[in-house]
Amino acid sequence: MLEILTAKGLLDDASNSKEFDRKLQSIFGNGAAVLERIVVKDLNRKLGIPYNSEARLDYEKSLETAKEVCFVESKLK
User: Residue 41: is its pLDDT beyond 90?
Assistant: First the structure.
């Protein structure tokens, strides 16, 4: 999976979540939503952020929350 994403240039600008979402949609179609859920669920688990699989996924907001948690944790260390 990582090889496909890299080959298609999806990871070239990983900080641009809207562009990443657009490219993911163009490659995987409706499957992109499943991949985004997997990414957010795993990221949240690693950062200790609660994840509600029943809630509507806001990919961009989820990534912003993860960035904020990482920033706060980096300040505490």
Answer: yes
